[in-house]
Amino acid sequence: TNPYHLDGDVSVAPFAGRQDAFGRLYGLTSDPGRQHAFLFLGRQGVGKTALLHALAALHNETAICPIIPLRDQEITHEAAWLLDLAQSVTAVLVERGFTLSRLSMIEAPGADMRLWLDTVFLPHIFATIRPTRQLIFLFDDADRLLLEIKTGTLPADLLDFFVELLKKYRQLQFVFTLDTEFEDQISEFGALVSYQHMLRLGNLPMPDVKWLLTTPASGYYVVPDEVVGAAYRQTGGEPTLTQRFGYEFFRRWYDAPDLNVITLDDVRKIAARLYAELRGSLRNVWDRLGVNERLALTAISGTLYDDPLTPLTPAVLQAWLVETDYPLDKAAINAALRGLEYRELITANPITITSEMMKPWLLDTPRTMNRVALSK
């Protein structure tokens, strides 16, 4: 069975790195005076959902960790949603084989669901899991929760209720993931999330990419260091895309098991196939950029195409843009470069495009489409 996931269950896919995420969350959950939730921030494809599953697996012996997929939930009103949260906890307890005699004694919810959750359900849960374990709710795609509060489907003081629960129960914790597209909404968490209890997830560094492409395949085939490096340059270390390369490496070996060494030629063929499949995703990345960021990225790509050996500087990019209909001054270029670096689309010192897969898309895109996109 291919150990890598394509569009399947990330809970069973190999997981690499994120030691900083594990460490930050451990530091918070082990703090007896904590009164805040934790927020993991990251763009699409960076592995936020996979991280929640890895956290649940890591805390298997020390915590009960229901994962709440907010994007897929039907949310109609608060009482039903809070009951769903309670049922998600019960489901994990059943899966873990806990004795449920205590739960069978829980009285049915009344009209006040918050009161029932606070004074009836949670005390029974903490008695069941004993003081040595925690209850950690892992909420995926928290923008959905903020949206339902904003539209009135859920009450405006729901997150304040969570804060009060955290103050009251030392075994309780809330963890959220949020796409960077909604980063400007972080303040809507109010007192529940402080800026000291957040971590932005980025691409995987080279050592983690190496582990991800080699360790799950150990015993089947070999991925030499130069092949790992080539795959890293193609993906830029993006976890989802790296998983795709791992999936394709395994499939290549499965189709020809006698050829048990992955080669640079394999990387080239896989990259060409994935590029054809991911053009739509690359366009989505482009569409999320500001006009100046698009101009700077186009200038980087165009300069590298004209002369791959040219050292890129803001002055060089400014000179390239002077020849177009969209010149930018150095201050605007520097600001755009900082935005692109924050999105991990480029690296600085020297300036270059992070993922090799983005380069052909920028060159293949017709100038007419670029003009239309830039004008938006």
Please sum up the structure shown.
The chain has about 375 residues and is an alpha/beta fold. It is built from 16 helices and eight strands.
Structure characteristics:
376 residues, alpha/beta, six-stranded parallel β-sheet, two-stranded antiparallel ribbon, 16 helices, 52% helix
Molecular shape: globular
Strand content: 5-15%
- Average pLDDT over all residues: 89
**Individual helix count:** 16
Query: How many beta-strand segments?
Result: 8
Main β sheet profile: 6 strands, parallel
- Helix-strand pattern, N to C? HEHEEHHHEHHEEHHHHHHHEEHH
- The low-pLDDT segments are none
Q: What Rg is obtained from the alpha carbons, in whole angstroms? A: 24 Å
The share of residues in helices is: 40-55%
Structural class call reads: alpha/beta
Question: End-to-end span in angstroms?
Answer: 46 Å
Structure description:
The strands form two sheets. Strands 1, 2, 3, 4, 5 and 6 form a six-stranded parallel beta sheet that branches. α8 packs across α9, α12 packs across α13 and α12 crosses α14. It is built from 16 helices and eight strands. The protein is globular. With 376 residues, the protein is an alpha/beta fold. The two termini are 46 Å apart. The mean pLDDT is 89. It is 52% helix and 9% strand.
